[in-house]
Structure to design on (434 residues):
């Protein structure tokens, strides 16, 4: 039973006479516990609800178009609390965070509902058989953090004695037609090499219901005192991992017509290898995991240059980026300068002093590092940064400083830019969206 906080104006619920502070008990005879129940059972055109008002159960009948929302709003999106993670993974980034940051940054979610609704990855370790049965009944495709299919190694890596036996849920879901996107956080000398081969081979047996797999390298900050000893990937070990993944890409491509498994961009950049062409990434199924982002940015930028007709005057801008992406971003800036002789585009690689120099991705650059390393420099008319540095839909960096604070300290207008080549070129040459 869930309390209704408000009713959408003009909605079927309002027309039926349902009121704020009523409690939703059931929809079409099914007790409602959370948002998945609500969405699944209210999708029909004919909906019977049981509402509790002042302790009295009241029936309501609603007719609507299929999948139209009834119009009930609740205290939280999930209608209850987020489910937290029960693991203590040896590679967990949250365990490597510095102290005294905002509380939300230390929360570890592991919620299968958010996997379906927002694309989060879940380990399945806090689910029971009834949860799996519900996912199968509702036909919910989800994203799973696998890391390894070796039960004993999974227990060790996730520091959870149930982590190995919960692997059975992956097989149950796949065998019942649930499409799974899988993720492996790869740690040198732990789940790479032959262990990675085992994981890819085991997951390959579940295709085509394994829609995609991403292999991403572990990220290690300087805050690892007392944690499991891990090392970063080197040029050589990153190359070896790419080669292993390539072996299985060939197998999957021959058997199923798709590569299925992809290394994240970081592996190619660490290995100092050229990024694969656009067609390598197929339909970019693991884009949000950093697979193909750089290739997409490069190709979009070059296409945008071919179409550009800018005739502006002299312009000077700067771009701040992480060490890993620096060379590619620098090349794009140089190409833009060749196209537009009056353009000057400086690119600065920002060292990550906040988390440690082993963190080289752009998305983990903080405002204080940006200010410390760029203060006093002539940054031109605008400083371009990636929106990945900011909290979603906000102007706040990871260290809780804001874009506005950085603008005052650096005396420059800062323009956050999406990972989009067309948008990047527009920001460089000063074309603003209306």
């Amino acid at each position: 039973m869930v309390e209704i906080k408000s009713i959408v104006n003009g909605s079927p619920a309002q027309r039926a006479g349902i009121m704020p502070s009523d409690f939703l008990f059931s929809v079409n005879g099914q007790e409602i516990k959370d948002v998945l129940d609500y969405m699944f059972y209210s999708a029909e055109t004919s909906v019977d609800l049981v509402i509790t008002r002042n302790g009295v159960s009241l029936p309501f009948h609603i007719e609507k178009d299929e999948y139209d929302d009834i119009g009930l709003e609740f205290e939280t999106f999930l209608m209850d609390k987020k489910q937290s993670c029960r693991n203590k993974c040896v590679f967990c980034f949250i365990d490597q965070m510095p102290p005294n940051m905002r509380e939300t940054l230390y929360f570890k979610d592991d919620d299968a509902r958010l996997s379906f609704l927002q694309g989060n990855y879940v380990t399945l370790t806090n689910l029971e058989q009834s949860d799996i049965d519900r996912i199968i009944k509702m036909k919910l495709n989800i994203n799973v953090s696998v890391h390894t299919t070796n039960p004993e190694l999974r227990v060790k890596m996730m520091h959870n004695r149930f982590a190995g036996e919960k692997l059975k849920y992956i097989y149950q879901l796949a065998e019942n037609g649930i499409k799974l996107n899988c993720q492996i956080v790869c740690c040198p000398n732990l789940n790479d090499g032959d262990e990675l081969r085992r994981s890819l081979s085991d997951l390959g047996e579940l295709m085509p219901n394994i829609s995609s797999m991403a292999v991403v390298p572990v990220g290690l900050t300087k805050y690892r005192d007392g944690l499991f000893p891990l090392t970063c990937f080197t040029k050589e070990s990153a190359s070896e991992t790419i080669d292993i993944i390539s072996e299985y890409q060939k197998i999957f491509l021959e058997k199923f017509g798709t590569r299925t498994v992809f290394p994240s961009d970081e592996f190619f950049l660490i290995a100092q290898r050229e990024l694969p062409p656009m067609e390598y990434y197929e339909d970019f199924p693991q884009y949000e995991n950093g697979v193909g982002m750089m290739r997409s940015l490069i190709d979009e930028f070059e296409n945008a240059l071919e179409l550009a007709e800018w005739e502006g005057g002299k312009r000077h801008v700067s771009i701040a980026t992480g060490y890993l992406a620096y060379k590619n971003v620098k090349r794009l800036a140089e190409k833009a300068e060749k196209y537009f002789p009056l353009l000057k585009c400086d690119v600065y690689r920002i060292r990550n002093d906040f988390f440690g120099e082993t963190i080289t991705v752009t998305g983990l650059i903080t405002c204080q590092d940006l200010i410390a390393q760029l203060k006093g420099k002539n940054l031109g008319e605008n400083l371009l940064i990636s929106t990945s540095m900011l909290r979603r839909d906000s102007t706040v960096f990871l260290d809780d400083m804001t874009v506005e604070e950085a603008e005052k300290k650096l005396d420059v207008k800062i323009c956050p830019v999406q990972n989009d080549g067309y948008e990047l070129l527009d920001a460089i040459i000063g074309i603003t969206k209306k």
About this structure: The chain has a mean pLDDT of 95.
